[in-house]
Write a structure and sequence with these properties.
Three copies of one chain form a homotrimer. Chain A is of the alpha+beta class. Chain A contains eight helices and 21 strands. In chain A, strand 10 and strand 11 form a beta hairpin. The C terminus of chain A is likely disordered. The interface between A and B is large, with 35 and 39 residues.
Chain lengths: 437, 437, 437
């Protein structure tokens, strides 16, 4: 695809590029992923019917027993391989509809009604199972080899909040590798280009700044910082007051969480302190499919206007849909979530990263790959990877600063920024004029 | 899919499990299947247009010449590989539409209109053909290596009957291996579980028995017996009279025939002698597709009520279809034919039988596999397999007993039960109460 | 597929048969194809939106820059592999929407807005590109290794004409190998069979001849002649006047052009001199897909009636569509373009030519394969293949004679026939009766 000389990718890095997107059991990256808790579905979606779920390339069935307790089992009954998706919910477990073998949530076979009364065959059967927890409207599972004594569930700070209302939106299914998404997030530089293609709803007073930004493709100043939870990208913009900066931090918690904090994500001309406390997580289905589950905290002090998150339901941007545009997505420009979908999907189901030509602007991507690589190494060496702790309380605290900060309080390192609870309004210089970096 | 220790499947049995579902030429099971006659289509479906049919993994074309004589040829013209599906019916054969090469029903090339008049090229061409017979509304073929002198057509006893009306129903296409179906039939134990999930149309007076049966999952007493034609499963239930038993036999004739004899198949609480004389056969398309062709004899003494056989056309059971049920088959429970479809399909296109954990209740399946295995061995050793005879009249007589029988007349062995023509009514004990095993 | 003894295909020929249909880079046939100019799309279809096009198994993007200049690049941006189908047209090239890397039509990277101002990384990037030319309403490209100095564009004589109006029709997409089409054209013998299946619109006065022709499948006398541009098939039919013959020539210019000259293509009973000057070319997408682009010259002296070319939009022939006809194409007979589609497609995506049984009537196909083979050999040996010249003016002149000619002027050899501009009307013998060969 390039006339350039074949990039000389060192063989160890080439091997890593091949391994990175794999999610199945037995793969190096898949084993790393199995050391973290993963969302299975929203609690409200799992009712009195078993539900097939594919997780990390494994076909499973989620169910609630008659008492409402959730379980997660291998989808095929180990007896004659019928699918437990068509099993029957029973008080104490899930029964295969074919011959009645019944399993509890830990995979124990608790009945085989067609076997002789004195048979102990059922005691020899242990079906594939994974532990589940329900917390804050989400069903979570842990698929690691230490599933009998897993590390504590990583409780996302935003979801844990009680000073507002958390809304969750699921169902945004993608047909490509989850790393296309993650690398997009680790690479905030793309925003001034991709999300600057069309900006139609800029207030009149900001148009001059916006035009300037578009015309000059001003790259954002970005720092990529490894943290306890993963990494964050920090942007520090000058304001009219040399003692005050406008700062934004976007964070990724390895391996599936992202955090978003600004209405316009802090890109010029956004100097509003109006805050968004939200983000999301990925349900990895297999190497080429994932689902996005987004969440947002609605509370006093956060952005009060009409707020939608995720894709527009008609997958339409604000650009004109031309009759002769035969592409899958026509008129796609103008909505950031759709712009990201289109570009990520266009990279291919699993991009052949050996063909890439990375540049300075890819430092975020490189940082992320280094962190993923270290986690894979740690797991291969029998250690817990970044973000997994056996001793902490399992809370997942992620830096989400967005707003103005005094230079003396600036923290670009791995520690979290000060809270932005009191921020507000646009920044104006001493003459009352809007300013930007 | 199981946390149990990997079943130690002996390598010879493992090899058999891999071979069993194969149907193509050159496979051990496929060669066995080619020693029997197979249904191609209902006679009425083959009119004046060639019809593509895939049989045992081979792409063929069925046709009638201008005189109505049927033929079965390889689908691609051996000249330039155009499909004879688009050929033209001629008085004496089928003509390829591309260059006019014409074939008779035995694959002889009888014209090549674009070749020189004195060319003898056509005499050197012999196209792939299989012998066909039309009998009782069905077109049959024999695809064995001895197709020039095949064994006599196995004439199904029910179809041969003239004391009633035989109805045939085709078109029930399945997208999985035919053995999922056959093993389901060899394993009648599943019925009390799967077909007992929902029983809504039980007469009031039978409800107590039914409830008891459902609550206790009473397994049926089942005997599996190898016979001349294949195997039968026999269930003997006690009645109020110790001298009288209620007996049911379900039969499989290797490799594609099944026989059904009772309205409710003789499962509790069915002690009616009302008889069904029907069954069906499988048109094996390839390893993962087959078509069911069912037949039934309607005559005096057989079940007189409204009778439908096969799947409900809307693939709906009697269970509620819940709005949040996103499974392929929602509300599927309550109709046995649909229940069987759902469970068989759920086992997978070709189940990986090495992952099974067989139990006592799988004796029927094991019996069937043993019979199939012996037939494969016989064919590999140059012998005719079970059910094939060069000297008999080719009739296929299958035990289909259903009803009450005196203990002195009980025959659980391979011989057929006495005819049930005179049976009738529900069984009551000395006090006039309904009885069951 | 045949009971005949396996044809003993010599291994070198067998190798050729396998290689012939391949079109991708690195294949022997694909490398041969890359020494010719190929149509990419009609000019009018390429507007201000990038358009993904697959050519010879390569995924490319066609675009016009802001000044309307066309370009053809590899579809994936070499930076992070995003698709340039979603790129943005800029004045001087095409910009990737993800990070703004911008390319000119020769694949030079002319901007990387997120890189440091003093970076020279962009000078090290050269993206895959192919030269394009626009001529007579078609965008053409050359994908050979000598793309920097390609041979001149082969300018099709009919398209170059200015004494009439040329109409182009694109969009006839096929799901099989392009050679199925080419071999059909090289084999005009098929016409009396395939296109004679149903002839409903024969004028009353011609019916007697037509009936005779159909009944006797009179093969056409056909000569296959290798020419400078490829090959032509010549048919010479007797007329009532021994000094006058009725002649038709159908031509193929290697590797993708065909030429058609008669309304009824000169098959009996067509002795009209009414001329068609048209033909078409193939856009090879990959091994199993191609698009037909047809053209026709409308001018005084050419067939004046209503004229349609290509497939009927409803893919319906003139034959009855029977309710029980379940074939993909029912009622397909009667329209030659549809008849050809049906039979070509029926040969399979890539026919397994080793199973063929060629005959005398396949001399045209054999001639064509020999020419293709020689061209592949020439390219493998570093020579320009047939039809490619570095020194000529690049015009593609193809014999398209159709009509009556005096015996003294007959040219069956590679040279072109005399112009048929003055022909006209049906031929009648001395008694005023219609004549034919």
């Amino acid at each position: 695809m390039s006339d350039s000389k074949a990039a000389r990718v060192p063989s160890a890095y080439q091997k890593l590029l091949d391994e990175l997107p794999r999610t199945g059991p037995g793969t190096r990256a898949g084993e790393m992923l199995r050391r973290y808790w993963h969302p299975v579905c929203l609690s409200e979606k799992l009712k009195d019917i078993p539900m097939a779920v594919r997780m990390l390339c494994e076909d499973l069935v989620a169910f609630r027993d008659g008492k409402g307790r959730p379980g997660l089992l291998g989808i095929r009954c180990p007896h004659r391989l019928a699918s437990l998706e068509y099993g029957q919910v029973r008080d104490d477990g899930l029964m295969c509809s074919y011959h009645g073998w019944r399993y509890d949530a830990e995979g124990r076979c608790i009945d085989q009604p067609l076997e002789p009364r004195d048979s102990d065959l059922k005691n020899k059967i242990r079906h594939l199972w994974y532990p589940v927890q329900e917390w804050r409207g989400v069903l979570w599972t842990y698929m690691g080899p230490d599933k009998e004594s897993p590390p504590p569930l990583q409780k996302i700070d935003v979801l844990a909040r009680t000073d507002g209302e958390v809304k969750l939106v699921d169902g945004d299914m993608r047909n490509y590798n989850y790393l296309n998404w993650m690398e997009n997030f680790a690479d905030m530089g793309h925003s001034t280009v991709l999300h600057g293609l069309l900006i139609r709803d800029v207030p009149e007073e900001l148009k001059p700044y916006n035009d300037y930004s578009i015309k000059n493709w001003t790259p954002l100043p970005l720092e990529h910082v490894e943290t306890d939870f993963g990494m964050k990208t920090v942007s520090v913009l000058d304001t009219g007051d040399p003692e005050v900066k406008f700062v934004n931090a976007w964070s990724l918690a390895i391996p599936i969480h992202w955090r978003f904090s600004g209405i316009r994500s802090g890109f010029p001309p956004d100097f509003t302190d109006e805050r968004q406390e939200g983000g999301g997580m990925i349900r990895i289905i297999d190497d080429t499919h994932f689902e996005l589950i987004r969440y947002n905290l609605f509370r006093k002090g956060n952005f009060p206007g009409p707020f939608t998150f995720g894709l527009p339901s008609d997958l339409k941007g604000t650009a004109e849909r031309k009759a002769y545009d035969k592409r899958k997505y026509s008129g796609w420009e103008g909505v950031p979530a759709l712009e990201d979908l289109v570009l990520q999907e266009s990279q291919g189901e699993i991009p052949d990263r050996k063909l890439e030509h990375l540049a300075t602007s890819d430092r975020g991507v490189i940082t992320m790959r280094r962190i993923w690589h270290q986690a894979m190494e740690d797991v291969a060496n029998g250690k817990d990877p970044k973000g997994v702790s056996r001793t902490d309380n399992g809370s997942l605290e992620v830096d989400t600063f967005h707003g103005h900060v005094r230079v003396s309080a600036l923290k670009i390192g791995p520690e979290n920024m000060p809270s932005s609870r009191d921020g507000g309004g646009l920044i104006r210089d001493k003459d009352g004029k809007l300013v930007f970096a």
